[in-house]
Design brief:
Blueprint: H1 19-24, E1 32-33, E2 36-37, E3 39-40, H2 51-64, H3 74-94, E4 102-105, H4 108-123, E5 129-133, H5 142-151, E6 154-158, H6 168-174, E7 179-185, H7 197-205, E8 211-214, H8 226-229, E9 233-237, E10 248-252, H9 254-259, E11 270-273, E12 278-280, H10 294-308, H11 312-331, E13 336-339, E14 348-353, H12 358-367, E15 370-371, E16 373-375, H13 380-386, E17 391-395, H14 402-418
Parallel strand pairs: 3-15, 5-6, 5-7, 7-8, 8-9
Antiparallel strand pairs: 1-2, 4-10, 9-10, 11-12, 13-14, 14-17, 16-17
Length: 420
């Protein structure tokens, strides 16, 4: 199975990638669970944090805790500088053209809701169509359903094939004069399938249709260049990118963000308030009402600093090797069916047993110290597509190794023994 990337990177061996050194940067990997070494394979839900991120959070609260953008004293100015420096790091990380195109939000979910309620309610009307895919996370389904209910628009769904791949020909067929917005995942959280987003954006832009991409599962695994992809909006969460929880990013093209009304009202998104009228602040602050997650933003900047210190070709090759190794290992079990066998995959391996529920699999693996995700993964339509109530999902990150996969396999043998 090939785990190709949106920007194709060398799929060579991983001899030069020092995963042991990487693992030492993540203190939680030294923990024991039920008396056994922790094997963390739930990275699709949230990733673990390197010590430098933990240190950044501690440093903020210990030595520079203050509100930002408002104070003229030393702590406020220091916190503001570090917070805005994180914004610039994010801009460079995804290659946005301008810093004011980076909006801090709580996560991918809030970013999508922001676009739905600000752009969608302003520029879409009854009879318009919004195109998503059948492999979306609920966070990229429900906000559009809410919008459709509010304005009378219609949701159209691009199907996926039996391998869990985005059907580009069907997507092309769905695009028409009524299509006013496309919102697609970049990488499926339930299947690992990589959507050909650059081609999807090109086809939409031929009809002047803006495109939002859910990049929550993409940015931890390969380099994302929003200008190269050409998307109009791109959303991701800090906690999946080895950063803190409660912080995320919405990238939007400045001309679109300028035309959109604020999503929330309050402090920092205003330039002047009277009882007669409020004048809104400039980008990006127009969309950042209230005191933000300052520590989270600074911590996300520290996570990006950490990732920038790695060789991403080596990271991608390592994760490719890991996914291939795990796929081969699980394929050897006659009683296991892998759900999601797309040619282009990121580091997600979902599987089911015909006679054992995924929750039971997850529970027994936990007793062996192996943390996976069991359930519908906030992607119920995917489960319905494959006719299963849930899957067991092992999702890998740059700090996982083949020994983690071996522990997963050993745990599966324990599952089979219990249910023999």
């Amino acid at each position: 199975m090939k785990a190709a990337r949106e920007k194709r990177l060398p799929q060579s061996g991983t001899e030069s990638f020092n995963v042991d050194k990487i693992r030492r940067d993540f203190p939680i990997l030294k923990e024991r669970v039920h008396g056994k070494p922790l094997v963390y394979l739930d990275n699709g839900a949230t990733s673990q944090k390197p010590q430098v991120v933990i240190d950044a959070l501690n440093r903020y609260y210990k030595s520079e805790n203050s509100n930002i953008h408002r104070g003229v004293h030393y702590l406020s100015e220091r916190a503001t500088a570090n917070y805005e420096a994180a914004r610039e790091k994010i801009r460079q990380f995804i290659n946005a053209e301008r810093g004011n195109e980076i909006i801090f939000v709580r996560g991918t979910t809030e970013a999508i809701n922001l676009v739905a309620q600000s752009y969608g309610r302003s520029f879409l009307k009854a009879g318009d169509e919004i195109v998503i895919s059948a492999m979306e996370h609920h966070s990229n389904i429900v906000p559009w359903q809410i919008l459709c209910g509010q304005i009378g628009a219609r949701l159209r769904v691009v199907p996926i094939n039996h391998d869990g791949e985005f059907v580009l020909d069907e997507y092309r067929r769905l695009l028409n004069e009524s299509t006013k917005l496309v919102s697609l995942t970049h990488v499926s959280n339930a299947l690992g399938s990589i959507v050909p987003v650059k081609e999807a954006v090109r086809l939409a832009h031929e009809r002047a249709i803006p495109v939002l991409l859910d990049g929550a599962q993409a940015v931890p695994h390969f380099k994302v260049d929003v200008q190269d992809i050409g998307c109009d909006f791109y959303a991701f969460s800090g906690h999946k990118l080895f950063g803190p929880t409660g912080v995320g990013v919405l990238y939007g093209k400045a001309e679109l963000l300028d035309a959109m009304p604020p999503y929330q009202g309050g402090g920092d998104m205003i330039s002047l308030v009277t009882f007669e009228k409020t004048h809104y602040n400039v980008l990006p602050y127009k969309f950042e009402a209230g005191t933000p997650n300052i520590a989270g933003g600074i911590g996300l900047g520290a996570a990006i600093d950490y990732l920038n210190g790695l060789n991403w070709e080596e990271v991608c090759a390592h994760e490719h090797d890991l996914l291939a190794y795990a796929t081969n290992a699980l394929s050897a079990f006659e009683t296991i069916r892998i759900i999601g066998t797309a040619q282009d995959k990121a580091s997600v391996l979902s599987f089911v047993f015909d006679h054992i529920h995924a929750h039971d699999v997850g529970t027994i693996l936990d007793q062996e110290g192996v943390a996976i995700r069991a359930g519908h993964h906030c992607a119920m339509p995917v489960m319905q597509r494959f006719g299963v109530p849930a899957t067991a999902r092992a999702s890998f990150a740059l700090y996982n190794n083949r020994e983690d996969v071996d522990a997963l396999v050993q745990g599966i043998h324990r599952v089979l023994k219990v249910f023999s």
